[in-house]
Amino acid sequence: MSVSVALKNVCQKSGEGPHWEESTKSLLFVDVETGHLHKWNSVDYTHTKFKADGYVSFIIPRESGGYIVACFAQLADFDWETQELKPFIKIESDKPENVFNDGKCDSYGRLWTGTMKTIKDKLEITEAGHLYRIDKDLSVNAIKDKINISNGMTWTADDKTMFYTHTLPRKVFSYDYDVSTGEISREQVVIDFEGQELHEYGVPDGMTIDLNDKIWLACFSSGKVFQIDPETGKILTSVKFPVSQVTSCCFGGPNYDELYVTSSASRLTENQLQNEEKLAGSVFKVTELGAKGKAAPVFQG
User: Fold this and answer.
1) Which positions make up the binding site for substrate?
2) Residue 52 lies in a domain
3) CA angle 282, 283, 289 (to 5 degrees)
4) Torsion of CA 261, 266, 272, 273, to 10 degrees
5) Are 259 and 250 in contact (CB under 8 A)?
6) For residue 295, is it within any domain?
7) Catalytic residue from among 31, 77, 205, 210
8) Which of 30, 135, 148, 258 is deepest in the core (most CB within 10 A)?
9) What is the CATH number of the domain that holds 220?
10) pLDDT (tens digit per residue) in 219-257
11) Binding site members
């Protein structure tokens, strides 16, 4: 395999939420704390960005046009041409420190996203967040409570299993999934890094899945993305990066055989940024993986 830098030091704080936009052959991602929405076009190599007013956690295309963006604890409609950002859903007004984190759509076009208490100096067990499902009629359904740090989700090719990362307590769960209703059942732990060395395994963050239903899991603090067989929990492949804080990943490129990986420069000292972590905040591209993904679903609401 080959690891290269696609966009060097593009994020000042935390690069997150990569999404390959099939219609424009572009990589979408965010810089969480600075509020920047990014689009990198792989055809003409243009890179454009927009600064929202505050904390953003994902950007996903909408079937009807434009994008859905998570900003603080709001979901907003965004038009890249006019650069208009219009909030239309706000949740958890009783918890002003809560924000949305990762978000993904299932093949039916529903949005799954979770909340968490804003991270200050260190990762905390707060149980202040929820996992939500936003249906196509824009109804908001609270699915799971007592969430610390809500993160990546993905589905098997047959839509019968959903995976969900609960960063603390360092676990990935699986659920039986009914794609016709969006209901989940039978929670099971499929990946468990609790008690494992932090520098070796990190904490599970964003993820994607390949065509063989193997999970690709970015593990913050480890500098690695692991390919994992969810049926056995066994690590099949380990991809090492020249930064410690990898955050998420997605498949893209003309054949969906390129893995794009975001990273964070947050909470690193000036000395680390100038010496050991010179590429922190970059977006990386991994090729020659022997694995492929597919186009990510867009929001149908």
Assistant:
1) 101
2) yes
3) 135
4) 70
5) yes
6) no
7) 205
8) 30
9) 2.120.10.30
10) 999 999 999 999 999 999 999 999 999 999 999 999 999
11) 16, 101, 151, 205
